[in-house]
Amino acid sequence: MSLSLSRRAALTVQSEIRVMSLECENVKGINLAQGVCDTEVPEPVRTAAKRAIDGGINSYTRAEGLAPIREAIADKMKRFNGIECDPNTEVIAHSGSTGAFYASCLALLNPGDEVILFEPFYGYHLNTLIAVEAVPAFVTLRAPDWKFTPEDLERAVTPRTRAIMINTPGNPSGKVFTREELEWIAAFAIKHDLFVFTDEIYEYFIYEGRHISPATLPGMWERTITISGYSKTFSITGWRVGYTVCHRKWAQAMAYFHDLVYVCAPAPLQIGVAEGIRQLPESFYQEISREYVQKRDQLCSVLKEVGLTPSVPKGAYYVLADAGILGGKTSKEKSMTLLRETGVASVAGSAFYHGGGGENLIRFCFAKTETELDEACKRLRALPNRLGKQTTASHSR
Ligand code: PLP
User: Fold this and answer.
1) How far is the CA of 43 from the centre of ligand 1 (A)?
2) Same domain, yes or no, for 91 and 181?
3) Are 211 and 107 within one domain?
4) From the CA of 80, how far away is ligand 1's center (Å)?
5) 37-70 confidence digits (pLDDT tens)
6) Of ligand 1's atoms, which has the minimum distance to the CA of residue 230?
């Protein structure tokens, strides 16, 4: 038999985050590898979704989603992001921001098109590009502040470059792109006539600086595909409700591809999200930052204390830490050492870099309940002792 998987399938690998989550389960550890916070779903969101189910909103919807969610998103884009868009032609409700990015790539990229990704990157961004046979080109952000220069961008561009991807606030770095950096990217995108994909799923998780949507910069609206969703903000990762906002020139084809792959985002859950956006007060969103900045500070201070020096994130809910003190040659071995010695799971830094980068880094997620985070911090505090014993044991051998 000469059947084989597609070339595409051979190029993608199982997510390192899932692999570590399994390893963690095996040792009954605390999973700081995966980013799921089980905080309560806001009441208006739950109630409206239940009412929608009972009220019979259970069928396919238009590919671009039901009117109430598109209208709620358009209103929120104006209030929060400063983007004016038409809910009828420039907003699409998608199956999560993951579905949103995939549909955008299918609609806007040709096989062989190059797309610039900042690294450390979010693995799904890379793998989605590979799945549509686009070619990633990398601009490496410099730790600990995850800086880059306009020259870095120019070095990555070729005649085949078609788009650049931004993730602000970013996973895994926690980088919040500054206005100056976004202006560099805007000038670069205009000069080389590029699309800009921007994943803003963590837009409400900001601890320093402020969230700026790239589409609001002069000359950017027509070329920018703004992607976001409510998985994180409303703690509904399993609901699969996200969206894109973009110029009407692109929206129809994106809705078409979303229809082809997913048909539509779940109908009653679109209504739940729409009502959440409509009803929840400003203070709900402010509370997110307050709650998470405490979690960030709690974890970062323990990491500092035990010698896993963190790069303190300005947004999102991940920390990249220097894993130099842990045994092992690769970041995978280092994260396994940490799991073995403390029962705390992290993700190897190499999962966020191409071609051998990130080997001295591991990533922690602090989107955890207070109890879990307290326990993780307690276990991490034992690390110096555990490593000390290990050194003594190997010396005496
Ligand atoms: N984008 C980034 C940067 C993420 O970190 C995640 C989840 O971890 C997602 C998108 C997934 O979002 P969604 O649930 O809306 O597909």
Assistant:
1) 22
2) yes
3) yes
4) 20
5) 667 899 999 999 999 999 999 999 999 999 999 9
6) 15
Other Cβ atoms within 10 Å of 97 Cβ, number:
24
Mutual angle of helices 43-54 and 267-279, in 10-degree steps:
140
Q: What is the pLDDT of residues 266-305, one digit of tens each?
A: 999 999 999 999 999 999 999 999 999 999 999 999 999 9
Best residue among 201, 203, 352, 364 to mutate for probing ligand 1, ranked by most atoms within 8 Å of CB: 201
How do residues 306-331 score in pLDDT, each as one tens digit? 999 999 999 999 999 999 999 899 99
> pLDDT tier at 16 (50, 70, 90 boundaries)?
confident
Question: Among the atoms of ligand 1, which is closest to the Cα of residue 241?
Answer: 15
Nearest atom in ligand 1 to 318's CA: 5
Mutation to probe ligand 1, out of 41, 232, 352 (largest number of atoms < 8 A from CB): 232
Provide the 3-class DSSP secondary structure of residue 107: helix
Closest CA to 381 of 302, 301, 311, 283: 302
Q: Is the pLDDT of residue 260 over 50?
A: yes
**Phi-psi region at 342: left, alpha or beta (left = phi > 0; alpha = psi -120 to 50):** alpha
Note whether 19 and 110 are same-domain residues: no
Model confidence band, residue 393 (pLDDT cutoffs 50, 70, 90): very low
- For residue 126, the CA-to-ligand 1 centroid distance in Å is 13
DSSP letter (8 states) at residue 31: E
Same domain assignment for residues 18 and 63: no
Q: Which two tokens stand for residue 97?
A: 């921001």
Q: Relative to the CA of 231, which ligand 1 atom is closest?
A: 14
For residue 317, tell me if it sits in a domain: yes
- Answer yes or no: is pLDDT of 391 > 50: no
- Which atom of ligand 1 is nearest the CA belonging to 100? 16
Question: For ligand 1, is residue 233 a contact (CB within 6 Å)?
Answer: no
What residue numbers bound the domain in which 345 lies? 10-40+283-389
The Cα–Cα gap between 348 and 362 comes to 5
Closest CA to 353 of 68, 112, 92, 120: 120
